[in-house]
Amino acid sequence: SSASTPIRATLFPGDGIGPEISESVKQIFKAADVPIEWEEHYVGTEIDPRTQSFLTWESLESVRQNRVGLKGPMATPIGKGHRSLNLTLRKELNLYANVRPCYSLPGYKTRYDNVNLITIRENTEGEYSGLEHQVVRGVVESLKIITRQASLRVAEYAFHYAKAHGRERVSAIHKANIMQKTDGLFLKCCREVANKYPEITYEEVVIDNCCMMLVKNPALFDVLVMPNLYGDIISDLCAGLVGGLGLTPSCNIGEGGIALAEAVHGSAPDIAGKNLANPTALLLSSVTMLRHLDLHDKASQIQNAILDTIAEGKYRTADLGGSSKTTEFTNAIIDHL
Amino acid sequence: SSASTPIRATLFPGDGIGPEISESVKQIFKAADVPIEWEEHYVGTEIDPRTQSFLTWESLESVRQNRVGLKGPMATPIGKGHRSLNLTLRKELNLYANVRPCYSLPGYKTRYDNVNLITIRENTEGEYSGLEHQVVRGVVESLKIITRQASLRVAEYAFHYAKAHGRERVSAIHKANIMQKTDGLFLKCCREVANKYPEITYEEVVIDNCCMMLVKNPALFDVLVMPNLYGDIISDLCAGLVGGLGLTPSCNIGEGGIALAEAVHGSAPDIAGKNLANPTALLLSSVTMLRHLDLHDKASQIQNAILDTIAEGKYRTADLGGSSKTTEFTNAIIDHL
Ligand SMILES: CC(C)[C@H](C(=O)O)[C@@H](O)C(=O)O
Ligand SMILES: CC(C)[C@H](C(=O)O)[C@@H](O)C(=O)O
C-alpha cells in the first residue's frame, strides 16, 4: 500500500470516553502521516432517533468493505433482548480470534517486569453460545459448544501468528481433565495444527495451573491459545500483570483477513467528556491495526512515541497516577513521533 | 471435645509424596498432643490386588462416620471410565463447598504482601456435571448445571463463614453478563442470602475483571464465593499470589458438617519416597480440620509453629529454595511448638 492511495478504515468511536480517545488516535495518525482515511460510524447505546438503532447495517458493511477497523468501548444497551454490542459485532463479522499482546510498559512499574505474552482467544463459541434454559424450577443449564472448525481455525491463527512474529512456544489452555469431550476436541485440533509447525514448541496447560503459573512467573509463557471463556479470563489476568485494560491492545481477526482492533476497557461514563481518559489501549490497538496492514514503519513510530511518553513519565493521565489531560498526553506523544 | 476422649478422624495419605507428608502431620499432632486418633485408609491409584479397588466403601464410610478427615494428593487412575478420585470423593461425600484460605506466609517473599483471602467454591455441579456429548461429527457440547439448592447452600456457607471469622465482605464471582440464566441463578441465590447478613458487605464481580483486580491488588477482596469452575481457577490464581499450591490449605465441607481437609497439590511422583516433599499444604489443611473441630488452641499452636519455621528460614524444603529434608522441616516445626 503506497502513501499516495489512502487506505479506508472504519472507526467506531463508541460510548462514554470513546470519542475522546478516538480523537487522540486521529490526531496522532494525522501527525504521523499515516495513509489512513477514517470512515466513522456510530455504534453504541445512544439510539439514533430516526433509525431507532444501536447498530446499523451500514456500520457492519463498512467493516466488511474496508476489511479493517478500530473500535472504542461500547456499553451494553439496557433493556430486554439486547446482547452486548461487542458480542454482536463478533458474531456479525465472524471475528473468530481475539489477539491480545500483553507487555510491560517501560517506566511504568507493576509487580512484574518484562512481561511479553500473546493471548489468542477463540471468539465465537464455547460458553458464549447463548444457549441456556431452565430444566425445571431451580435447575438451569447452559451449553458450551466446541466445534472442530472453530478450534482448527483459531489454532491455525495462533501458530501462524507465532511463526510470523518469531515466537517459540504455543500453549493450549484447557480443562480437558474435566471437559474431556469439549476441551478434548479443542486440544485435538491444536495438536493437529502443532504437527504442521515442528519449529514451534507446543504444550498443553490446564487453566487453573496456568493462572497459578502466570502470577508466579509469566515468563513461562509465550503465545497462549484457548477457548472463549478461558481467553476472556486469562487475557484480563495478563492485562492485570502490566497495569490493566487501559494499557493493553486487542485486535479481532475475522474470516478473509478482516481485522477489528478494539480497546477492551469500559466506556467510563463517569469521566466521559472531561478530557481525563487514557487513550493508550485504543492507541496501541490502532498500532496492531497498522501492523495488520503491514504498515510496520508507521506502527513502530507511533508505538515508540506512546511508550516513550509513558516511560518519560512527565505526561500521564490520572489512572496512571499523573494529572495530564487526554489532549496533553496526546500532544506529548505527537512531540515524541 | 475433652482431651481425654480422642476424636477419630480419617486419614487418606494418598499417592506419591502423600505418605511422607501425612507422616509429618501425624508426628506434629503427636508432639502437640492433639486429641485425634487417626483411622488410616488407602485411597489412590495403586489397586489393592484382592479388592481390585481404588476406593473402597470402607474408606468412604470412615469419613461418613467420623465426619472429619484429611487427605493427601491422589493421582487419577489411568484407564477408561475412571473419573478423578478427588471428584469421586466430592460426589460420594457430597462435599459441597471447597474453602481455601490464602494468606501470605511471613518471611516467604512473593510479589504480594499481606494477602488474606478466602475462596469458597461450589464443589458439586456447574461445568463439572460430566454431561457431554457429540452432537454431530466435529460438534461437541457440554452442560453446565446450576441449581438453586446448591447455589443457596454454598452461599449460606460463605456468609456463615464470613460472619464466624469476622470477615467484612463477600464477593460473588460470575459471568452473568454472558450466562444470564445459569450464573444469573447463582447470583440470585447469593443475593437472597446476602439479605440475611446486613452486617456483611456483598458485591458481585465478573470473573475476568476479578482476575485482573486480584493480580493488581488482592487487598480489594476478602471472601470470594463462586461456581465450581471459577472457583477452581481463582483458588489456584490466589494460591499463586502467595507461593503456590504447596503452601495453601484447603477444606471440603459436606452436608451435616462433614469436613475433609486436603492438600490440593499433585502427588509429585518424581520426588516421592525421597524425603524431599514439602508438607506445608497438608499441615495447614490439618489446621483447618482442627478449627472445624473447634480445637482452636491446638490449631493455633501448630499453625504458628509452621509459620515460624518458614519465617525463620533455616529449614526449608527444596521447592522453597532450601535444602531441608521433609523430616528435618518436620522436626523444626516440632521444636517450634
Ligand atoms: C463485555 C463482555 C461481554 C466481554 C466478553 O466477555 O467477551 C468482555 O469481557 C471482553 O473481554 O471483551
Ligand atoms: C484434579 C482436578 C480434577 C481438580 C479440579 O478441577 O477440581 C483440581 O484442579 C482441584 O482444584 O482440586
Keywords:
homodimer, 337 residues, alpha/beta, ten-stranded mixed sheet, two-stranded antiparallel ribbon, 10 helices, globular, binds 3-isopropylmalic acid
Report on this model:
Two copies of one chain form a homodimer. Chain A has 337 residues and is an alpha/beta fold. Chain A has helices spanning 18-31, 57-66, 85-92, 148-164, 182-195, 207-216, 228-242, 280-292, 296-312, 326-336, and strands at 7-12, 36-40, 68-71, 95-103, 116-122, 132-136, 139-147, 169-174, 201-206, 223-226, 251-254, 259-262. In chain A, helix 6 packs parallel to helix 7 and helix 8 (280-292) runs antiparallel to helix 9 (296-312). The model of chain A has no long low-confidence stretch (mean pLDDT 95). At the A-B interface, strand 6, strand 7, helix 5, helix 6 and helix 7 of A face strand 6, strand 7, helix 5, helix 6 and helix 7 of B. One 3-isopropylmalic acid (IPM) sits between chains A (84, 86-87, 232, 264) and B (177-178, 208).
Please work out how many helical segments of chain A DSSP would assign.
10
| Beta strands of chain A, count | 12
Oligomer classification:
homodimer
Distance between the termini of chain A: 21 Å
Q: What's the arrangement of strands in the largest beta sheet of chain A?
A: 2-1-3-12-11-4-5-10-8-9
Low-confidence stretches of chain A: none
Largest interface: A-B, 55 and 55 residues
- What structural category do the secondary elements of chain A indicate? alpha/beta
Tell me the series of helices and strands of chain A, N- to C-terminal: EHEHEHEEEEHEHEHEHEEHHH
